[in-house]
# Entry
Amino acid sequence: PSRTGQEEYARFVTIMQGCDNYCSYCVVPYVRGREISRPSSEILEEISDLAGQGVREVTLIGQNVNSYGIKEEGELSFAELLEQVNAIDGIERIRFTTSHPKDLSDELIDCFGRLDKLCKHLHLPVQCGSNEILRAMNRGYTRERYLEIVARLKEVCPDIRLTTDIIVGFPGETAENFADTMSLLEEVRYAEIYSFIYSPRRGTAAADLDDPVPANVKQQQFEQMLERQQQISSQIWEADVGTVQEVLVEGASKMGAGQIFGRTTWNRIVNFTGPAELAGQLVNVRITKAYRNSMLGEITDEDEVKVNE
# Structure
C-alpha cells in the first residue's frame, strides 16, 4: 500500500507474517499465528517491480523483521536481505519496522554504517525501562542489553535517531519501576515515543496477573512521560533548524497551494514551497522552523547535507 495516499513514491512491503515471541501482554501470536517469512526472491522481485513503477522508498514490514529467514533453511538473513534491496536500481531509501531488540544482531546493526540507502532511523520498542517489568512482559532482554544495543547503533551511525513504544501501568509496576523508564528516556533521548496505557487482553498471560496499577496513577504517569518526552523531542528538532536535510518529496502538502512535502532520513515531515513536479525526487531543504509534528523548510542548492550529531 501507499504510505500517503498520493502518488506512490513510498511503499510498504510485507516480508513476513506472524510472531513467535509471546510477550505476555500481546495477542498477536494468537491472532496472526507463528512467524512465516516470504521467500526473498519474491520480495526482491516485488521491490524491483515497484522501482520500475517509480517507487523510490520502501519500508519492509513484519511483526519482527529482525527474525526474518531464521526458520527457513537456506534463506537470507534480514541483514542479507537489506543488502540485496540496497542494490536495486531506482530504490533510493530503505526503512523497516517493527524491530525486536532481542533479535537485533551485530550484522544488522552494521548495516546502518555501510548501506547508503538505509535511513538513519530505527523504531526499537523497549516497552519499559525496568528489568523486573521486562521479565514480567517476557521481552527477552534487560535494560542493560537494550542500552548496549543503543550504544552500538550510535557507534556505527552517530546521527541515527531512535523511536520507541512504551507501556505505562503494567500489572505490578511500582513507582520505582516507572522511574526506571523515565531515566531511560534521559539516557537514550528518543526522537519520539509512542506510549500506551496498559489494558489487559483476554487470553494473554498478563491478563491473569494480580496487582493492577490504579487508573488514576496510570493516567498521571502517562501524562508525566509524554510531557518530558515532548521536551526532549523539541530539543532534538529545534537543533535541526538551520541545517540542510535531504528530503524525498512525496507530493502536495496540506499547508496550501504551491506547498509540497517530503520526509527526512529520520522520517520527519517537512513542508516547503516547490513545484509538484519534484514529487519522487530527493532534494536538499534548509530547515527554517520546527513544529511538534512537522517542520518547515526551503529548497536550497547546497550540495552538502548538514546534520546535527
Remarks:
- The chain has three domains: 1-119, 124-238, 244-299.
- The two ends are 33 Å apart (CA to CA).
